[in-house]
Amino acid sequence: MTKNITNGMRQSILFTKTRKEAPADEVSKNAEFLVRGGFVHKEMAGVYSYLPLGLRVLKKIENIIREEMDKAGGQEVLLSSFQPKENWEKTGRWESMDDLYKVSDSSGRVVALGPTHEEIIVPILKNYISSHKDFLAEKPLAIYQIQNKFRMELRAKSGMLRGREFIMKDMYSFHTSKEDFENFYEKMKDVYKTIFKRVGIGHLTYLTFASGGTFSKYSHEFQTISSAGEDTIYVDEASGNALNKEVLTDEVLGQLGLAKEKLVEQKAIEVGNIFDLKTKYSKPFDLSFTDAKGEKHVVLMGCYGIGLSRLMGTVVEVLSDDKGIIWPESIAPFAVHLLVLGEDEAVLKEADKIYESLQKSGVEVLFDDRLGMSPGEKFADSDLLGIPMRAVVSPRSIKEGGIEIKKRNEEKGKVVSLDELQKICLKKSIN
RNA sequence: CGGGCUGUAGUAUAUCGGUUGUACAAGUGCUUUGGGAGCAUUUAGGCUGGGUUCGACUCCCAGCAGCCCGACCA
Q: Model pTM?
């Protein structure tokens, strides 16, 4: 159960509906299921709006990431999306970054729509950081936010996996020494692993040695194995580590102590990436501090990204079957999908009672109380939406003594009483 | 940004150089209710702009949009 999310929703008043047909122009599985289920609405290539069900999933992912960032000592902010051109000229990226959205207003002023926020966070920190005393031994200086990012992708594709407007968590860390940076960087590797585990794709996600792109020579990516991925990585099953094809050289293999013949080639989706920025962004803005001896040093930086929208698409991509999505309990829009079949008064009343009492006991439940729908339609919708537990109330289930429950990833269900159902659900929400 | 394919109703599709047909969705009525029901009835469509033609949704050109491949890519 998540604090900022309501417990119950009646499907009869949910404004979105499922679609039987997949959008014709969309082949990626994540887009097909998310659009058909009414989780998101596509506005244009690589741009999606989040509808009630999709927003619930997004918030769950957001909360997991926020919890882990806070635990790691991060402080949350929300930086502006409009970014001054001058800042980008200072780092030399106004011209070099070809996917930068440059927008102008009627006064002729030109700004960038933030694709990332080094150019914003560093000048802000300059207002507050000047001494070694501004860095505390017991708490890292790490600032993060969760926000929409804009990138003029020449080719948006694969549904939520590569968008022009997307949601990202970006954290920036600041350090007075290489050692301090490295400690934090290593810690973040574990934090990231925890996050991917919690959202349900830990078993498919590998810490991957990769190129640092425009930031640094090398970086670490978190890659989730999926045929929908656009990256090719080489996995060493024994160590659980991997490296990206782009850095596959004998020299790198030697550094990592990996043997070429033991590596397995896989397609993967990059769900996270962490970088050693060194002084690349602190230097242009002269973000520096004075040490105890009165000497000035440039601050060292790291940055740590996770694409939330991409993560949502990735989960659908890797955890679904031909009928629909199979959400992990941790990020499912609801814990239970309660269906009532038929229109018998007594059965409807009983289902209503069950809905109310599940809600009261803190179980997140989507109640398919829609009338005039055949059982088949309700089952098909339920499979598509992918809520982990389905609970059916019908004349038959009542005759058999209660509610027929079935997990989304199981074939057969069983009949339980309301008490038992509540117990099962509550036990889960404690975990 | 190079290449390919596509653009018909809310969605998915069909046919046609001469009144765009169907399914689902939606509305109404009745029946039906454990794996996307049935009958009746109603509503709703040719991306935009040019050209060819007696006549264009159909052929041609341009634009725009979408998808796929590649390049690119925090």
A: 0.96
pLDDT in tens, A7-63: 999 999 999 999 988 888 778 999 999 999 999 999 889 999 999 999 999 999 999
Q: Which nucleotide is nearest to A27 (CA to C1')?
A: B67
Q: Looking at the domain assignment, is residue A329 inside a domain?
A: no
Coil, strand or helix at A266? strand
Q: Where on strand B do bases come within 7 A of a protein Cβ?
A: 1-2, 11-13, 24-26, 31-37, 65-74
Q: Which residue has tokens 């009261």? A: A360
Residues A60 and A188 in one domain: yes
Final residue belonging to a domain, choices A297, A324, A351: A324
- The nucleotide lying nearest A404 (C-alpha to C1') is B34
Q: Is A75 helix (H, G, I), strand (E, B) or coil?
A: strand
CA nearest to A263, candidates A279, A289, A281, A244: A244
- Which among A267, A295, A324 is the end of a domain? A324
A301/A367 same-domain check: no
Query: What span, in angstroms and rounded, lies between the C-alpha atoms of A26 and A161?
Result: 13
Tell me, what's the ipTM?
Answer: 0.92
